[in-house]
Amino acid sequence: MEWTRELRCKPYADWGAKTLLDLQAQAASSDYKLGYHIMPTSGLLNDPNGFSYYNGYWHVFYQSYPFGPVHGLKSWNHMRSKDLVHWENLGLGLNPDFEYDKNGAYSGSALQIGDKLFIMYNGNSRDENWVRHPYQLGAWMDENNRIEKLPEPLITQPDHVTEHFRDPQIIKHKDEYYAIIGAQDATQKDGRISIYRSKDLLKNFEDLGYLHFTDENMGYMIECPSLVFINDKPVLIFCPQGMDKNICPYDNIYPNNYVIGDSVNLDAGRFEASDKTVKNLDEGFDVYASQAFNAPDGKAYLISWTGLPEIEYPTDKENWAHCLSQVKELSLTDKGELIQRPVKTMADLRYDGLPLTQEQGMDHIQNLVSDTGSQYELKLTLDANQKGILHLEKNGSNNQSLKLVFDTEEGSLTLDRGNSGKVFATEFGTKRTTLVAKNAPIELDVFVDNSICEIFINGGKKTMTARFFPEKGQKSIAIESQSDVKYRGTFWKMQSI
Ligand code: FRU
Fold this sequence. Notes:
The chain is 3% helix and 49% strand. It has a 6-stranded antiparallel sheet, with no helix packed on it. The chain has 2 helices and 36 strands. The structure holds beta-D-fructofuranose.
């Protein structure tokens, strides 16, 4: 079927229940469906939205197009959880159903204000000449999860930005409400983050100009800005499109980056940082549009879209696409480095733990676990000064696996999905490398869930995420090396949520 503009814009009600049920059945019977990650019940999922805590639940919505694996007319789909691991699907949350969001209820955020959840999002609206008019819109959700939209936009497009003005994050900072919004400057045509302030409880928003957080050029657009505080330090997460690779090397079509500041003055548009280095949030293939927020207890949590725009994925053929990452808790080391860790409750999914050790010489290639099932966690420490390949999801003939090539002498890890099953996105390379401490052990915490692999390295100092699409027989974990490899760890199977 050809995804014409008309088809992508077709109102949800005109599709018919049967079509939706067929699409849902197709996604539910996929070999690649996820067991303990949020995936769409049908169609396409992209950005996490409205990640928040309200009324005794964690909430996350996702950008959804339920009728196919394309970026059609977007809505918000609502998920909630008691523990950040088990998620309940509450279905359609925000519908693109009025003038200001008629071409899509685009990304945004949520924050408890009073006894309701305030939602701020981007209404994508196009006129008869297909010119986009971006509106920053508001809505209130009550404790019965009923959402009521505000009838008028909170913010309309100011003259100094182009039509690329979206993804508002609403935050309370120093007793004031601020919105930070991804933007493209109208004159320079470069990527910016706009700041707005509301002094009268969200009635009027005042344009404070841009947030100055780097001296570098951030490409032609910044999507999905997300500001969180960790031990009072501001951490700014964002997606620059078209950023020069010399500023921060990346191989993905668009990177997802962060900078850590010492302080932020939103009224003055200043993000003060002694080290303004722009870093990659993830060193793998598929993390984008990440959203972080500070929970009422002050902790910072992160969740990401594990997929990228403008790339075909193998499940497109099954009419569904993408998933969300697991939730990660953010912290800073004493030296100020960002740490991303699985939330503690993730361990509740473990069963059938199997200790793993190897302290002697080994064969060229040796299985650690011969039948992993398709959902597991593997914690493994590799001793210093060793080289080899950790095969995740290897087949019986040793010619297909997701490979993690390690060198604990040089301190390098390369994730290679080139021969891990169905190939895709090869134009962006099939390997990603990250560097860690030399001559030191490497601690890995690897999560595999059917068609996603999330790797936490050295207690979360780095992460590497990859979608991959294994063939049926790929069921073992093995280490391959020319010499002895010493390791110890534990393998667990993981329950579905
Ligand atoms: C990022 C993004 C956002 C936009 C949304 C639309 O992936 O392009 O900027 O709000 O997706 O689905």
